[in-house]
Amino acid sequence: MLKVTFLGTGTSQGIPIIGSQHPVCLSTDKRDKRLRVSVLLSWDQYHYVIDCGPDFRQQMLTHPIPQLDGLLLTHEHADHTAGLDDIRPFCFRQGAIPIYAETHVIAALQKRFAYIFETKNKYPGAPSVAVQAIDKDTTFVLGGKSITPIQVWHNQLAVLGFRVDNFAYVTDIKTITDEEKNKLKNLDTLVLSALRLEPHPMHLNLEEALALIEDLKPKRTYLTHISHLLGFHKAVSEGLPQNVFLAYDNLEVYSS
Length: 256
Fold this sequence. Notes:
- This protein is α/β, with parallel strands linked by helices.
- It is built from 8 helices and 14 strands.
- Strand 11, helix 7 (206-216) and strand 12 form a beta-alpha-beta unit.
- The relative contact order is 0.17.
């Protein structure tokens, strides 16, 4: 059984946005407080995190794990990678942490975090990573489970989602090909991004996300990567189909 912990369910600015007077940003409902998007996947003795955003430290303090077996990165944007330096405590205990990402993502990280990837005269306090290049066409194995990458498009940027058993995580999606959709058939649980109500050039809005869910027909879906413009958690949840749920930070679900 796969345990999925929603470490963060917010968009790039999180909720509340700094200085915003928007009603959702002022909400007292804890489900409307959203850190940057990430999930923790746990099974047996293994713990893998998908994306490592700027709230990673806070997320790991809230959900402590004995070890970090690896990071799976969807793409290079800061809200998904800016917390990479904060893997240091795991590195000091374990050594280099495996990171699984496409080559263009690795190249971007090598520029942004050059000191982490330095091979000569590396600062001794810097984190260490073991780079594992992956692509949409190659399934790989982690902790005895097959991981199937799914390519989606964030406007013109290729992003990877991941399928583990009958669970799939797909964020920052605007379009997907029919070939990649086939990887998302017969799911028990789908996690899918739904940014807001109005259309967006790089993300699915709620209407588009629901249409894709109807096409894929997973048993249940949790929506994530949510902005304040989607609305209050309680109100949005009341209008969703029976098998679709609005995720929130610290939610834990199990999937076969």
